Amino acid sequence: MSTLDAEVTEWSAPIAGHERTGALVSLSIGGERGAGEITLLPGYSPDDPNGLRAEIDRALASPRFRAAVADADPSRIDAALARVRRNSPGAAFALETAALDLAGRCLGRPVAELLATSAAPRPVPINAVVPREMTVDDAWRAAEAAWESGIRTLKLKVGADGSTLALATRLRGAFGAELDLRFDANGAWTLSTVVDELTSLASVMPSFCEQPVAPDEFAALPFGVLPVAIAADETVWKGDGLAEVLSLVRGATSDYVRGATTVPPPDEGGGLALPLAAIVVKPALVGGLFPARRIARLAARRGIPVVLTHVFDGPIAMAACAELASVLDPAPLACGLAAHEGLSPWGETPPQIGAATAGSAGRPGLGVPLPEPPR
Asked: Which domains does the chain carry?
């Protein structure tokens, strides 16, 4: 049996307005090499940056993980990372991606095929994000450029000065019903203001608003009177949010999502206590591709679509997310996988990310070379 070799490179660099830290993981066996990456986002990533390397090294020393990687067995790779996910979701994501990339290269199969449960890989639409910091004119130009590239879903970050509604009104007037318009409040509103805030936006007919209030207030939202549908984002991964969301689904547990138990998905009884238009899933924050797939499966059993997105990840993580998005069944809504400013320091956009869609590269593994870390 060939020997499994591993290399870990830690890095730190300014990316997209934040001082980012992370790690690249390289796993090699029999002349093939797989790559994994985690790029921590301050204020969002649940990982302890000072403990990231230790968690990666601990997993790499585990005979169970090494055997699963050597056998190119995706289900065993998933199971071997359950403990790591509890301690460091980002470390688990990097290790899982590297292991799946290596397995795919050894087997001659794309990562998408290793993750598929029923659907064949197919492209999925992507959405563009309009930051709240832009002026209305600059935001309009960014939205128009996205539209011309073929993107039909725009997400507007909600500002406090009324500019968001002005922009949304202009966009709806220009692009009509073909435009899928979303808002993202990032938990900025309170239970006492949320109805008024959403009422002011309802006239432009958005598909939904992500995370209107903080995670600890989410379950108390007055869903019956909200004029705009709601999607969960930070509630899914921040603090005990994952446990809270899953507690609304009969039989679902956080341990099931993280892969620490073989408890099957819930039966068709019960249902969600909260009506959600979508669940936003970030693999880097929930522990990787397999946990993200389990969240999507749980949501699908209740008729709730998912949106797969990033935390300004680098090219390896973006490629991995696109491979998963291409085989989710049912297909996700337009995903937040457009090329972003955080890719610039890496010097490349992975082949999985197109102008208006994302999908599998159709190559063994991820089909992306191990990049140099950003400086």
From this structure: 5-108 (3.30.390.10), 115-358 (3.20.20.120)
